[in-house]
Amino acid sequence: MRYLILSTLLILSATTWAQKYEKATFGGGCFWCVEAVFEELEGVVSVVSGYSGDTKYYSYEEVCTGRTKHAEVVQITYDPSKIDFKFLCEVFFTTHDPTTLNRQGNDRGPQYRSVIFYHNNKQKEIAMNVKRIFATTLWEDPVVTEISPFIKFYDAEQYHQDFYENNTSYGYCRVIINPKIEKFRKQYAAYLKKSN
Hints:
Layout: H1 2-20, E1 22-28, H2 31-38, E2 44-52, H3 60-63, E3 71-78, H4 85-94, E4 103-104, E5 107-108, E6 114-118, H5 121-138, E7 146-149, E8 153-155, H6 163-166, H7 171-187
Parallel strand pairs: 6-7
Antiparallel strand pairs: 1-3, 1-6, 2-3, 2-8, 4-5
Helix pairs in contact: 2-7, 4-5
């Protein structure tokens, strides 16, 4: 009986958690960079690096070939009572270059494409509006961000999770992510978690 009650409580707790939070899935180049940015926003519960775009799991090495049709993405769990999807999209468009097709800096290939995988029609509409209005006023060149239906998300290997936080002295982090994070923190200082 106790096991049944405990199981029921766990199911109810998980259901309440799922109802309270929503998910967003963004790809904007290397997921180390995208993860580092979104982890700092107030209202973001978690950010997981991974792969999205197909129904089959592939390893990092396979995705890096560019032949699997997956994109390196982050899956963001957020509290919509504290931060909304529109704002997440605006942050997304200001923290990577959405005008370069299948490329962010030296990272090249379709796995590094700029993409929003929407989870419902409301997200699709918001993403398209932010791309059309906000992003195009921000960038001079045409915005090539793909807006596609979410199919499946696969967690990246464990060593990719919280990569920037755990490897700040790594060369890529110092040269590529540090300047991006510094710029982001200045631009969005009012929206950062209090611990930052």
